[in-house]
Design a protein that fits this description.
Rossmann fold, mainly alpha, IstB_ATP-bd, two-stranded parallel ribbon
């Protein structure tokens, strides 16, 4: 438990809290209570970050991947399983994902759900409808060339169209 508190304080950048708690005169009850308090703080920070990333991404809906209804009308690569999509393994392998299907089959809903899951995992995501992205790039070009849009887009983990 001592190492857990030390690591948690380090992750949360609380340089002197661990030293305070581990002084000789501190009780075990204080130690446990502080550990529980810091775990709660860490969870809430992660939730708040995910919420900020989801708002910033500009999703048109907020349906999570757990509520997505899978069907065979959307083509995903045969080498990729649904589980690999849900766990975002393709991101860890730095692979692109292209969803193929006729209009109305749920490609955008799936892309949004995957983007929301990525935000919950701390990834920076931006959602665009194709026409919105074309407009965005068209507005940036007169100000300094299309390179500006590419540089801001290149810093994202996911660009969902």
């Amino acid at each position: 438990m001592e190492n857990e508190l030390k690591q948690l304080c380090k992750r949360m950048r609380l340089a002197y809290v661990y030293d305070y708690v581990t002084e000789e005169n501190k009780s075990e009850g204080l130690y446990e209570e502080l550990l529980n308090c810091l775990k709660y703080e860490q969870r809430e920070r992660e939730h708040a970050k995910a919420d900020r990333l989801i708002r910033k991404a500009g999703f048109k809906s907020t349906k999570p991947i757990s509520q997505y209804e899978w069907h065979d009308q959307i083509g995903i690569p045969s080498s990729t399983s649904r589980e690999e999509l849900v766990t975002l393994d393709f991101l860890h392998r730095r692979e692109n994902l292209i969803l193929v299907g006729t209009p109305g089959t749920g490609k955008t809903t799936l892309a949004t759900a995957l983007g929301i899951e990525a935000c919950r995992n701390g990834k920076d995501v931006q959602f665009y409808r194709v026409m919105d992205l074309v407009e965005y790039c068209g507005r940036i070009e007169p100000r300094g060339g299309a390179d500006n849009s590419g540089s801001s887009l290149s810093q994202l983990t996911i660009v969902s169209l």
